[in-house]
Amino acid sequence: MTVINTNMGALHARQYSARAELFVNKALERLSSGKRVNQAADDAAGLAVASKMTSQMLGMRAAVRNTQDGISLVQTAESGIKSISNMLLRIRELAVQMENGVYTSRDRDNAQMEANALMQQIDKIAETSKFNGVNLLDGSYNKQIRAGNTNAEVINVYIDNMATTNIAKIEAFANEKAVNGVSNAAGNQQVTSFEAGQVSVNTSLFSDAFKEIFKDDGLGSFDFTSTASTGGDNTLFNIDKKTGEITSKAALDFENPTDTAGSGSAAGNNIYDIEVTYNARDGSSHIEVIHLTITNKADSYLSNVDLTSPVTAARSIELLDKALIEASASQSKLGALQNRMQYTINNLTQAAMHTEMALGRIVDADFSNETMMLAKHQILSQAATAMLAQANKSKQSVLALLQ
């Protein structure tokens, strides 16, 4: 059918030309942006997945920065504790030196002044060590480091209080030497001691009567004996048969006394009845009845370090040993946290990288494919335009019928 108003060939050519032009523009857009998905219409499902992946990737990158800040915080705290440990070592060195019996009270006072100065510096470090204005070593730091994209991915960081009034808490020392009490009589020799893991009583605390005998003959032997109500607690102690030193077999705790009734005292009143017989070489013997009273001891801390006497220096060594153990434990804990955070950073970095790779496979444009499609549709667009021209020209034959 020969018609003019409806040019079927031109209509088809125009349709394919418009379609080719659409694909050309799409290819140009992708090649210009470098992305396959530039709007939701390009790939609605892919865009939804890409949005979630982008959120996850950005969260992990922020978590990496958080964790790096956490490592810096831990390193700052560990540096402060290391300085404190060095000072503790110096104070302990002074304590060992002052336990010797060759120093005057003036020498001990000088050592105490140095120890006091070092302990003041320990407190100053504990008080002023900060990271970004946050206190680290005063016991107040107990927070979380966000180390992941989700709320569950956190690392708890607690840093111990390193003040001298807080570390090295000791209720009872490991060893205590008894001291003279009120009475000084062989039948009622009173001595006292703080509660301790082991309490010892040496012959320097025995009565003057014993010392006179021992002065004449110091090569006899010692042994536990029991006369009437005395010596009821002998089984709780050991005695050195040559030196006569008495040591408790177990801890003597003020709150939980283990003494038995003796010398008119009720059981469990922290008075231990011990009877010792000294056997001289000439066959004579001397009986010493000792009443050891255990007294309560308040908790001691590093701030209680006292180098003014050999006895207090010995106690101070025990305090300092515990303080060094606690400082080392704190350093080890912070070191473990630092390693944990570093492994977390490694994991987050790898996860973020693979997430970004997966995101790229969804949204990035394949330049090889897009340039191929651009060339194809450019050719189709040109061909459609040429065919539209041919279709328009073909209708000119209708004029021959009108001549």
Can you describe what's shown?
- The protein is α+β, with helices and mostly antiparallel strands.
- It has helices spanning 8-33, 44-98, 105-128, 208-216, 310-363, 367-394, and strands at 130-131, 134-135, 142-146, 154-158, 173-177, 179-180, 189-194, 196-201, 221-224, 237-239, 246-248, 271-279, 285-295.
- It folds into 2 domains: 52-169 and 308-354, Up-down Bundle (f41 fragment of flagellin, N-terminal domain), CATH 1.20.1330; 173-298, Immunoglobulin-like (Sandwich), CATH 2.60.40.
- It contains 6 helices and 13 strands.
- The strands form 4 sheets. It has a 5-stranded mixed β-sheet with strand order 6-7-13-12-9, with no helix packed on it. Strands 5-8-11-10 form a 4-stranded mixed β-sheet.
- Strand 12 (271-279) and strand 13 form a beta hairpin.
- Helix 2 runs antiparallel to helix 5 (310-363).
- The longest helix has 55 residues, at 44-98.
- It starts with 7 loop residues before the first helix and ends in a 9-residue tail after the last helix.
Number of helices: 6
| Largest sheet data | 5 strands, mixed
Strand order of the largest sheet: 6-7-13-12-9
CATH class annotation of the largest domain: Mainly Alpha
What structural category arises from helix and sheet content? Answer: alpha+beta
Rg from C-alpha positions? Answer: 46 Å
DSSP, total strands? 13
- What's the architecture of the largest domain, going by CATH? Up-down Bundle
Termini gap: 19 Å
* Arithmetic mean of pLDDT: 89
The number of domains: 2
Q: Outline of this structure?
A:
The protein has helices at 8-33, 44-98, 105-128, 208-216, 310-363, 367-394, and strands at residues 130-131, 134-135, 142-146, 154-158, 173-177, 179-180, 189-194, 196-201, 221-224, 237-239, 246-248, 271-279, 285-295. It has 403 residues and is of the alpha+beta class.
